[in-house]
Amino acid sequence: MPAPVDIEAVKVDIAKVDKRIETVKSDLLKWMFAALIAQGGVIVAVLQLLK
């Protein structure tokens, strides 16, 4: 027989996980844009060297 589950505790845990996912998603987006800008800089530098 399975142990009883506290529904409110599960809801709180799900809310915490949702908040963590939101935080990770925004951090990932920031790093993605930073990498995009850095990559653009590298491309510009290489093109300047090839002239």
**Average residue pLDDT:** 94
Q: How many strands, what sense, and barrel or not for the largest sheet?
A: none
Roughly what percent helix?
over 70%
Q: Roughly how many Å is the radius of gyration?
A: 22 Å
| Poorly predicted parts | none
Q: How far from one another are the termini?
A: 75 Å
Please work out how many helical segments DSSP would assign: 1
Strand proportion, as a percent range, falls in: under 5%
Verbal overview:
With 51 residues, the protein is an all-alpha fold. It is built from one helix and no strands. The protein has one helix at residues 7-50.
Write the layout of secondary structure elements.
Layout: H1 7-50
Key attributes of the depicted protein:
51 residues, mainly alpha, 1 helix, 86% helix
What's this, in brief?
The protein has 51 residues and is mainly α. It has one helix at residues 7-50. It is rod-shaped, with a radius of gyration of 22 Å.
